């Protein structure tokens, strides 16, 4: 099987992927099992790729380890006791097994869905790219060191086994080229171009002003100050991170304090908020009884409280300058959930007109980083191909 490009956003809550233009995601739940538990975990076989996506069980060796390790990934792992163990702390994506295991799981699902010959268990990937959060980049003496270390995790050859009944097989993966970009900054490509590499009409509004990319993830918040015209950030000081207020930890505290009997785990509560933020009415319906419980007041109040803290911290790291225009663009997996609270809060502070002009939550804000990776990779591969043709001619 041949894959031209594979772009990946290893989110703390949701793992998002685009493989040759096909977009999919699954919960960032990875639970390790002992071999004995893995061997007896499933009692029935899976027949459809979409069911397989929910019940991925794989094994592999990681890094220089010799022992094979077994992992449940995605929905099937969500109910396990340690499924959300990574949420209340910043985990190092360069060393954590989670990004690597979800990388393999994404390949396994894509292969199950798109392989023309199920006997073809060899997968060649021309180009893979992912990204790192700012707090992790700043831990190294140079960003390049961290980016290189992350990219090197995926380049080269990989072998793993799938143990989900009905999809058992060994897959061999070869990645020719791997790249790691900066979260937040990479999203600028998605503000400038669409997925066909055409200029976006609304990109003109960023030509004469600085743009602050506020990338709100489940575990961390990245802040990148871009020069006029959405150019690349030009100094280490242009990259900031807001720590100490992980969104997932905030809503988990709300769940435990207010709704422990309604939501037994964070994943279910997070999904409930995701399913209902568009209508701004958080009503939990019991399908067995037909009764509904309205949680709107508590949830909206908690989201507003979180946004007030976020905006105060944002003002500390990237305050609006007195002598130049600066626009704020909110992106990342949590941005759509917080959009109403952000716009309402800023509206109270600076008025609705200024808020609408200087504070943006793009329609595709949840995938803005991932789309940035995709747009960059398409352009890069096109240039690479053109270079090869030029050499031949």
From TrEMBL:
Family annotation (CDD domains): ASKHA_NBD_ParM_Alp7A-like
Protein name per its UniProtKB record: Alp7A-like C-terminal domain-containing protein
Domain annotation Alp7A-like C-terminal: ranges: 210-365
InterPro entries listed in its UniProt record: Alp7A-like_C
Organism: Priestia megaterium (strain ATCC 12872 / QMB1551)
Keywords noted in UniProt: Plasmid
């Amino acid at each position: 099987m041949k894959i031209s490009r594979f772009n990946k956003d290893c989110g703390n809550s949701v793992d998002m992927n685009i493989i040759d233009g096909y977009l999919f995601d699954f919960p960032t739940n990875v639970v390790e099992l002992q071999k004995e538990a893995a061997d007896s975990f499933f009692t029935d076989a899976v027949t459809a790729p979409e069911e397989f996506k929910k019940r991925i069980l794989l094994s592999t060796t990681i890094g220089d380890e010799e022992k094979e390790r077994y992992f449940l990934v995605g929905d099937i792992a969500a109910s396990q006791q340690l499924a959300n163990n990574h949420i209340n702390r910043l985990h190092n994506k360069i060393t954590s097994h989670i990004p690597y295991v979800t990388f393999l799981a994404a390949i396994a699902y894509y292969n199950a869905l798109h392989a023309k010959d199920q006997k073809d268990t060899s997968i060649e990937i021309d180009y893979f790219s992912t990204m790192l959060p700012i707090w992790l980049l700043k831990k190294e003496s140079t960003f390049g060191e961290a980016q290189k270390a992350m990219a090197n995790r995926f380049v080269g050859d990989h072998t793993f086994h799938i143990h989900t009944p009905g999809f058992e097989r060994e897959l061999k993966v070869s990645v020719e080229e791997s790249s790691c970009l900066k979260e937040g900054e990479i999203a600028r490509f998605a503000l400038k171009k669409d997925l066909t590499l055409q200029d976006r009409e609304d990109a003109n509004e960023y030509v004469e002003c600085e743009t602050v990319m506020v990338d709100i993830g489940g575990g961390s918040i990245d802040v990148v100050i871009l020069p006029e015209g959405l150019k690349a950030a030009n100094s280490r000081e242009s990259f900031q991170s807001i720590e100490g207020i992980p969104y997932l930890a905030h809503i988990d505290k709300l769940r435990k304090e207010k709704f422990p009997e309604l939501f037994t785990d964070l994943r279910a509560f997070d999904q409930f908020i995701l399913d209902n933020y568009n209508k701004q009415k958080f009503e939990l319906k019991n399908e067995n009884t037909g009764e509904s419980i309205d949680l709107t007041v508590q949830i909206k109040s908690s989201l507003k409280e979180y946004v007030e803290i976020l905006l105060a911290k944002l003002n500390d790291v990237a305050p609006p300058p007195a002598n130049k225009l600066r626009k704020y663009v909110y992106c990342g997996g949590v941005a759509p959930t917080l959009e109403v609270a952000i716009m309402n809060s800023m509206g109270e502070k600076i008025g609705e007109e200024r808020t609408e002009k200087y504070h943006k939550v793009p329609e595709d804000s949840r995938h803005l980083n991932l789309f940035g990776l995709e747009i960059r990779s398409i352009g890069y591969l096109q240039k690479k191909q053109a270079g090869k043709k030029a050499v031949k001619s």
